[in-house]
Every structure is written in structure tokens, then in C-alpha cells.
Write a structure and sequence with these properties.
mainly alpha; two-stranded parallel sheet; 2 strands
Length: about 150
């Protein structure tokens, strides 16, 4: 029994300081501040290329996503196109470089089949695949986002 107490590390990983650290973590943010016109353009692009599994994406949906609203989640229709959208937003300096991490940690995106959350790793792989296989949709998304510059 003395050995068990000496070497038992159960509970070490969940001590109060670790829990406190997670509460003190900075809030998730894309670091963006879109005008109404820019948000309308992003929504129009997302609808035109059917990025999400909704009949018509609303401005309120994208506002919730970019505001990192707690418990907000939307199902992805084509992960490559979604990755291209966010990469184009980064290229045009609308969002910060850690967008993949924000989407992962916030669990804002659901896979097309709705069985799992989209991870940073899957977004990275999708973006890499999209860059290796340039399609008219990818170019259209990038062009639509580049037009949003003021």
C-alpha cells in the first residue's frame, strides 16, 4: 500500500493549477473586424461555392463564426474550399495566421457527415491539397476575397 501511494500519479495531470491555466487562456479570436459590406461579400462567396451544409448561409452565421461565439458550430460541405476561404482571408490580411488553431480549439466546424469536428491538421491537409490541385472554385474564392479590400 505504501508503494502504491508513493508511485500513484493518478490525478497529477488534473491538478488545480492546470485547470486554472486553461481558464486564464486568452479568448479565441481571428483578429478580424469586417465591415458590413465585407461580411456580405464573404457570405455571398460562401453561398456561391456551397462551403457549408446549409441551404443559404446568413450573415449572422458568419458573424458568429468570426466572433468565435461559444457553442456555435456549422457543418462544412467542402473542407478544401473552406480552407481556401480562410487562407485567402489571411493572404489579404483580414485574419491572423493562427486561424486553423482557432477553428480547431473552438470546435466551430463539423465534418460533412456531422460525426466529428474539423481539426487544424485536417484544415492544413485540405489547404495543401487545394494548393496542389488548383480548381476554378479555388481561384473564384480567392478572387472574391481579394475584391473585399477597401
Amino acid at each position: 500500500m505504501a508503494l502504491k501511494q508513493k508511485y500513484d500519479i493518478a490525478g497529477v495531470w488534473f491538478d488545480s493549477s492546470r485547470i486554472e491555466d486553461s481558464r486564464n487562456a486568452p479568448p479565441l479570436s481571428f483578429g478580424c473586424n469586417f465591415s458590413r459590406e465585407q461580411m456580405t461579400g464573404i457570405v455571398a462567396c460562401a453561398n456561391a461555392y456551397h462551403l457549408f451544409c446549409v441551404s443559404t448561409l446568413r450573415i449572422e452565421d458568419m458573424e458568429a463564426l468570426f466572433a468565435c461565439k461559444e457553442n456555435f458550430c456549422i457543418r462544412v460541405n467542402n473542407i478544401r474550399h473552406v480552407a481556401v476561404l480562410f487562407d485567402a482571408l489571411l493572404e489579404n490580411t483580414f485574419i491572423l495566421p493562427h486561424w486553423q488553431s482557432v477553428l480547431d480549439k473552438g470546435r466551430f466546424l463539423l465534418s460533412k457527415d456531422g460525426t466529428r469536428y474539423v481539426t487544424a491538421s485536417s484544415l492544413s491537409s485540405a489547404l495543401s491539397a487545394a494548393r496542389n490541385n488548383i480548381t476554378s472554385a479555388n481561384l473564384g474564392i480567392r478572387k472574391a476575397i481579394s475584391r473585399l479590400k477597401i
